[in-house]
Amino acid sequence: MARRDPTAFEAFVQGRSPALRRTAYLLVGERGLAEDLLQEALVKTYVAWPRLRDTGAAEAYTRKAVVTTAISWWRRKGWSERPTAEFVEPAPSGATEADAAVTRAWLREALDSLAPRQRAAVVLRFYDDLSVAEVAAVLGCSEGTVKSQVHDAMNRLRTTLGPDARATWDREVAVG
Fold first, then answer.
1. pLDDT digits (tens, 9 = 90+) for 109-145
2. Where are the domains of the chain?
3. Plot region of 5 (φ>0 → left; ψ -120 to 50 → alpha; else → beta)
4. What's the CATH architecture for 97-175?
5. Which fold has domain 6-75?
6. What is the pTM of this model?
């Protein structure tokens, strides 16, 4: 049996946690839940570490653990969308930092309205900038399914966000 190298695992966690935390946050929408999700995925990665032939594949393994764990959370009976106290309108162009926060909340709410696999596909494809093949590998489905999920999700986002949302979406994805 292969040995666990705690130093290599620690270096992996320190180097890749910010990107993986962002993915987790985009999937669940709350910082605390994202931290819990990442922690659970990192535990799974640590357990599997001796079996990983190539530690360079650890990020892909952990990203898949993040996504599959998030999807399993969404399937739990107790998981539900949480209402907000106020409706968030999109920010006008020429926005300040406060307006940008409102815009992010508006986009976050639209992203939260997607089905779990659609949300995962959009986050992996556009925020994590993975190829269709890489998203398919993470989600454990065919490339055609990824394309279908992304297509349906983007149509729903266009309907939810309105016709002027494309520029806002592109700005937010670029800033990430």
1. 888 888 888 998 988 888 888 899 999 998 889 999 9
2. 6-75, 97-175
3. beta
4. Orthogonal Bundle (1.10)
5. Rna Polymerase Sigma Factor; Chain: A (1.10.1740)
6. 0.61
